[in-house]
Amino acid sequence: MRKIAILGSTGSIGTQTLEVVEANPERFSVEVLTANNHVDLLIEQALKFHPDSVVIANEEKYPLLRDALQHEDIKVFAGADALAQIVTFADVDLVVTALVGYSGLIPTVNAIKAGKNIALANKETLVVAGELVNESVAEHRVAILPVDSEHSAIFQCLAGESRSKAEKLILTASGGPFRGKDRAFLEKVTPADALKHPNWHMGAKVTIDSASMMNKGFEVIEAKWLFGMKPEQIEVVVHPQSIVHSMVQFTDGCVKAQLGVPDMRLPIQYALTFPERTTADFGRLDFKVCHSLTFEQPDEKTFRNLGLAYEAMRQGGNMPCILNAANEVAVSAFLQGRLSFTGMSDLIEKTMQQVDFLKKPTLEDYMETDRLTREIARKNVSPKIPPL
CA 131 to CA 355: how far, in whole Å? Predict the structure, then answer.
């Protein structure tokens, strides 16, 4: 039985991971559950799955969590430090990192150093500090299993293949709710408009990133580190149906694709059970009703975030960290109505030009880069927004 920890168990990926666990009780035991603010759902999950430990990052919610679980044999912790350290002493085989944004970096790094295998749903970990994370993975001999549908697809396409024979990775993008729209249209969209993704059900931050194409930019950077590819070997194509989750082109010209219904439980289960493929009752792809699969080039002039991500990847160093921190401030400002949809790209680009570039940053450098970038980005938004 595989013992798992779920960091961010109350979010979209976390709750779907628990659905997979519930459907396979003979395969998994839940040892750790963590949440940032959603204490009511965390309590519900703890009472249902009976983990060894739970952590609520928001210390103000600790008394409610403690009192609700006082009669259970469950250890209860609170605070950012507890969240970052819980997996280092927990008896777990696999850590599902489903935290959102930069907050996932330190817990994931600590888990790797503790020798835990990672089911990675927090793409920002590799976006911010991919080189450092890969070095730590090699040093501690752990595995990173991708949970994102696109990277899971590539991982599956490469199964049984020599990595050196992979010529190009082709990441598919749905195009989000604004595919085909021009900049004039985008300048007027509201947060409510941007939160209406046509194919996937995700949290607010990831949904906005998907609408702006930043999510795809992050996935390009993540793919570089997961699969050891150069920037010019990673291509993005828009595929509105979200049936082909990604493809690999090999040196003989062959292209392998992974197809399936748009259901995140599929890549989650594959990561949890790898190297096995386990039977599930998820929906099946029906080619009697799936009449067409279309592909088109992304509009990088309108959706500028994708180009900014490629530029950050090409520069390397701490530039992707700057990109991520500026984007988190931009998304927060947009959701608060303090920045337009197109203004997010303007803010990110301006901030990337203002923060000092470091070619070979340490973990402490990444942390300082993140802090400084947020400070500068917030100053670039008027009126000022509160710290994230």
Answer: 20
Element housing 242 (H / E): none
Q: Return d(Cα 289, Cα 122) in angstroms, integer.
A: 33
Report the run of H or E that residue 208 belongs to, with start and end.
Answer: helix 204-212
Can you tell me the distance from the alpha carbon of 65 to that of 76, in angstroms, rounded to the nearest whole number? 7
Report the alpha-carbon distance of residue 219 to residue 242 in Å, rounded. Answer: 15
pLDDT digits (tens, 9 = 90+) for 368-380: 999 999 999 999 9
**Torsion angles phi and psi, residue 5, rounded to 5:** -115, 140
Question: Residue 336 and residue 329: Cα distance in Å, rounded?
Answer: 11
- Per-residue pLDDT tens over the stretch 255-282: 999 999 999 999 999 999 999 999 999 9
193/157 Cα distance (integer angstroms): 34
- Tell which residue, 222, 16, 1, has the closest CA to residue 120: 222
CA distance 248 to 20: 27
Q: Which of 294, 288, 328, 367 is nearest to 84 (CA)?
A: 367
Handedness of CA 180, 319, 350, 367 (dihedral sign): positive
- At residue 25, does pLDDT exceed 50? yes
Q: Give yes or no for residue 387 having a pLDDT over 80.
A: no
Report percent pLDDT > 70 for the chain. 97
Q: Are 13 and 264 in contact (CB under 8 A)?
A: yes
CA torsion 320-138-228-86 (nearest 10°) is -50
- Is the pLDDT confidence value at 16 over 70? yes
Phi, psi of 79 (to 5 degrees): 105, 160
pLDDT given at position 196: 78
Neighbours of 282 (CB within 10 A): 13
End-to-end CA distance of the chain: 38
Q: Amino acid identity of 77?
A: F
What's the pLDDT at 90? Answer: 79
pTM above 0.85, yes or no: yes
Q: How far is CA 24 from CA 15, 98, 269, in A?
A: 14, 20, 10
Query: Looking at the predicted structure, is the pLDDT value of residue 200 above 60?
Result: no
Bridge-based pairing state of the strands 244-250 and 166-173: antiparallel
- What gap in Å lies between CA 134 and CA 125, rounded to an integer? 10
